[in-house]
Structures are given as C-alpha cells and as structure tokens.
From TrEMBL, chain A:
Molecular function as annotated in GO: phosphate transmembrane transporter activity
Membrane topology qualifier: Multi-pass membrane protein
PANTHER family: PHOSPHATE TRANSPORT SYSTEM PERMEASE PROTEIN PSTA-RELATED
Protein's UniProt name: Phosphate transport system permease protein PstA
TrEMBL record, chain B:
Any single Pfam family the record assigns to this protein: ABC_tran
CDD domains found in the cross-reference section: ABC_PstB_phosphate_transporter
Reported function: Part of the ABC transporter complex PstSACB involved in phosphate import. Responsible for energy coupling to the transport system.
SMART domains per the UniProt record, alphabetical: AAA (SM00382)
ABC transporter domain sequence ranges: 18-260
GO molecular function per UniProt: ATP binding; ATP hydrolysis activity; phosphate transmembrane transporter activity
UniProt protein name: Phosphate ABC transporter ATP-binding protein, PhoT family
GO BP field: phosphate ion transmembrane transport
Secretion signal, residue range per the UniProt entry: none
Amino acid sequence: MTDFTSSPTGANGRRRGGSLLELDARTKRRNASEARFRLMGVIAVSIGVIALIGLLSSILMNGASSFRQTYITLNVFLDPAKLDKAGDGDLEKIAKVTTFGYAPLIQKAMEAAIKENGAAVDGLNAKKAAELISKEAPADLRRFVLANPDKIGETVEFSLLAAGRIDGYFKGRVTMESAQLDRNISPEQLMLADKLKQAGVLQIKFNWAFFTAPDASDTRPEAAGLGVAILGSIYMMLIVLCLSLPLGVAASIYLEEFAPQNRWTDLIEVNISNLAAVPSIVFGILGLAIFINIAGLPQSAPVVGGLVLTLMTLPTIIIATRAALKAVPPSIRDAALGIGASKMQSVFHHVLPLAMPGILTGTIIGLAQALGETAPLLLIGMVAFVREYPASPPEGFFDPASALPVQVYNWTTRGDPAFVERASGAIIVLLVFLVIMNIAAIMLRRRFERRW
Amino acid sequence: MYDAPSLEKTVDQKSTKIAAKDVQVYYGNTHAIKDVNVDLLDKTVTAFIGPSGCGKSTFLRCLNRMNDTIDVCRVEGDILLDGEDIYDKRVDPVQLRAKVGMVFQKPNPFPKSIYDNVAYGPRIHGLARNKAELDEIVEKSLRRGAIWDEVKDRLDAPGTGLSGGQQQRLCIARAVATEPEVLLMDEPCSALDPIATAQVEELIDELREQYSVVIVTHSMQQAARVSQKTAFFHLGNLVEYGDTTQIFTNPVDPRTESYITGRIG
C-alpha cells in the first residue's frame, strides 16, 4: 500500500502529519492482537507447567513412601531341635526344613519381645501377634541359616520385614477403622504395633531392599523390590546401545555421505522416517514372531527385549544422526577434499566429530525412549513374574528378567493397595534414570562443543 | 584506469601446466561450460573474470575434480595436467587434489587448532616422518601464508577464532602445506575487507614464484593487479584469453570490452 493510493486522511489508514505521540486505530489493533497472542502463549505454557507439576507431585506423594519400610527387630533363637534334628550340621538336611519350620521360631521370638517390653494387648494370641511379621520373613531367615549353618543354636538379632498392612498403618494407608473391616489385620494388631514402635522394636528405615530385592507375590507387597527389573533394564539398554549406535551411525553416514541419490535411496529414506512412527507394539509382535518363534531365543530374556528395542531405536538414531551430519557446513567437507583428503577421511576426521554432539543427543533420547517402552516387552513375555536374578552378562542376557516400565505395569494390576505405592516408587526410580541419562547427554554435548 | 603494473606483464616462454581441450560441463540438462580451450601456464597467476553464473567457478572446480562431489555434474573433453588426463579412469581424485590445491570463497578453517589445520594435509599425505619435520612444514607453510608472525605464539588456539583475513591466509597456508603444484582460488577475497584483501593479493604475487595460481574474481581491479593472464567467461563460453594488460587495455572481443567497461555483467 503506497501513499499514492491511500487517502491521506483515511479512517483506518496512516494519517499523514499525525502526531507520533498518539496511537492511530490501526496501531492499536495491531498492538491488541499482539497482546492477545502473548496472553494465549502464557496460558498455554502455564497449563503445561501445571499439568507437569500435578503429575510429578501425585507420583511423589504416592511413591515417596515406598523408599521407607517398617522393620521389626527380633532376637531369634535358631533352635537346633527344629533346624538340625540330626545335629551333624549336614547342609542337605538343613535345607530340607521349609519356611514352615522357621515360622514357629519367629513366633517364639515375637512372644519374647512382647513380654520383654510389656507390650501385650488383650485378646491377641501369639499366632495373631506373629502376623505382624511379613510372610517373607521365614524365607529370609531360612536363607540366612543356609548361608551360615554354624549359627544354629545361637540367638541372632534379625531385622524382619513387617507385614504390608502394618507398614501401611505407619504410612497412613491403614487406619483403625479400615482394620475393623479388613480380614488380614485387626485393630488389636495395630495397637500392638504402636506399642512395639514405642518400645523401639519396630522401626521405619530406608528401604534399600526396594532397589535390590526381586519381585514378590501378590500377598507380600512389603517384600517386592525392583532388583530384577533394574538389572533387566540395564541389560537391555546395554544391548540397545551396543547395537543401535554403531548400526545407526554407520547407516546414517552411508546414506548421507556416500549413497548415490536415486530412487532406492529415497525409498529407504521414506521407510526409515515411517519406521519411527510405527506403534511400538508392532515391534513387539515382530520380536515375538522372529526372535522367539523363528530364531528360538528364550522368552522374557533381555536379549530379545534388547533386539526389539534396538529395532525401535534405530530410526530415531538414524534421523538424529542424519540431521546432525546435514548441519555440518559443506565448506568443511570442501576444505578437507580440497587438500586431498579422501571422502572417508573428510567424514571421519572432520564431519563426524562436528556432528558428534547431535548424534549423542539423538542416541540418548532414543535410549531414554527405549528405557520407558512397555508395550513390545509385554508381548515377548517380560511381564512374567521373575524372582531369580539374571546371571552376569553375557549369559545373563538369556536369563528371564523383568524391566522397569513392565514392573510398574505389573504392580498396578495387583489387588493390594500397597502395590500402588510400589508402582509409584518404581516410576520415580525410572524417572531418576531418565534424568540421569538426559544430564549425561547434556554433559557430553557440552564436552564436545567446548572444542570450539 | 587500472593500477596494473604493466611492466611486469610481459609473459615469457613458460611451460603449460594445465591444458583444457574442448571442455564441456553439464549440470543435469544444463550446459554450463561450452567448448573451453585454454592453456594455463606454470608460475603464472591466471585470473578468471566474468559475470555471475558465467561458469568460471565451475570451470575452476573441474581443474581438481571438485565437481565429482556433485552427482548431476558431468564433464566432457580433456583436461591435461603436465600432459596427463586428470579425468582418466586410473586417476584418483584424492591424489590429484594433493597436486592441485584449492582455496575457497569463504574462509573455512577446520574447527581445530591453527597447528592442526596446517598439519592435517601433510599428515594424511605422509609428508612428515616425525614431529620435528611436521613442525617445520607448519612453520614454513604459515610463513608462506604470511601469517606466521601473527599466530606463532598461539598455534594451539582454534583456527576459527582468527579474523576473516587471517582465516583466509590460514587456509592458503593449509593449501600450500601439501606442496601442491597448482593453487586454485575461488574468489578468495570476496569475504575480506580491503586491508586483508591487499595482504592476500600480496601473498598471491609471492606464491607465483613457485606455483601456477588460478584465481576467480569478481573484481576486475583485482584481476588487473594480481594476474599476468586473464580469461573472460560469458554464459559458459570462454570469450577471450590473453595477457592481462592486453585484455584490459585492448580487448579483441566486443563482449569483453563491454564487460570491463561496465556495460554488461
């Protein structure tokens, strides 16, 4: 719009000779629309931030308590009459005593502790009092005895897991009112727990077992831990890193720097982009069909999970790497070629180091994605209940294991409300791993970028 | 009109370094270079001038096969370096480019130290047996690039931290470090200020003693100042090639005259 066509005093147009100190109508409208747009932006960002805060705080509130655990300290007399009837210390015979043989020992120790601290509650017999201890405790005791058979006949101090309901009582999940309606716990038992706490027999400690213990059955949420899941996830990430980084970088370098520009390359490019958008469960079916049914790899094994996640991560890494390679200015390639470097020398000496920060960022984002992936792992059987730790690599890659996100899913499907807390705790662990990986990505990028 | 030192312009009988015969270059279906025949002399600065898009840079890049990196580019005809066809199937472009170095329009030092920038070429071509020899080559090249005094105390500093003019001289030092026989320069001063330009031009004049230098330039004054031979390109044709003095004072072709007097281009 030029001055020739607009009338000098148009109602909306710019007035000729108008004062700069007054805003004309057009400028006002423009400013108003800009202000509206900014406001919308602020609102959009706020909604996002509020949603994030809500999500994180709900997870933290539900899950933070899973890092604390109630323990009851008892002096258990390892009675030789029960554990080692023959008295010859033969480990095979001792191993024949099942966890049922250990339960009475705990019951006796509990009785003694109540008597010693004067914590007796009316209407609560010894059997009910012993129910304060987790059903996992006899198994722990048995493991200890099998590891230290020479301790038989001595009185040993044990820190035994309290039952899930007792643990829940101190975390506010179980109350006197709810205990009245609960078949698994009675108000009297809770009163006993209160007294024991006052006496210092019952303590709340940091829950290291949450990170190291394997999963536990539906009725023992207090014993459930992430040990196997963390190991499984680490194994899978190792496999994904070792396979997808070299494959992805090699593929990208070839496609970006060496491949002839023809219809085939275009076709491959389109397919790689599409592959990145394929729903992850499809990769799970692929893994089930190829790696388990055809190749005959074991189910629930980190090697299969790792291979499936590698397939999923490859497109992400290839796309990120190609973008990073493209971002390297062509003048650097020219410079290298111009002084007689071969194509490969120019790529490996100059282009690749410059693209490294981008490649690493892409790789770690891909790994983080793989770490949080659940759906394909369900299909290849990693949802199974695994209590045995996988062996150390490489054999361990073929042992059954779980994975962090699958463990979360697994726990949320269980009945006992204590598992909700465990699942939220597992999400926190998963998030911490992701944050660590992202920090690693940022630090690596800084390190490489600092080289001017 | 031009500050051409015409006394020096007498070109004596120098041997032909690069001979181009009937060179055609196609970009896909575009015929970019048509029937170019030219003999570039040894120990001489030859300037390629002409309006934008006339093909002078394209032709320059043919001389060390930098056009190989462009998929759609096709070169026909013969380009002989010391009588050997550089487009022969047996010629490895990598070896060729070690003999025919190139300096680009935009200074493009590697994002490495000044030392590594210069040492890179000798390293990949195995010109130095040990660190001492490499140090020597680096110093010699930087001196020849007329930048030694400015950077000798900070050889470990990044090459990208230098000023534009210094970067370009570093690139020239990097190019001469591989001891080429021909040095191609694609508008080496277009990104530089007049002072840096003067330094680079001075340098080009010194390089003439050892190399055959081919320079593409948009500045006719620059062509007149630094070159002994000038080739004028127009729409993919080599219109006129001759002594710089003659081209600028007494052009044969009317198109050349129009261009140097500013009527076309």
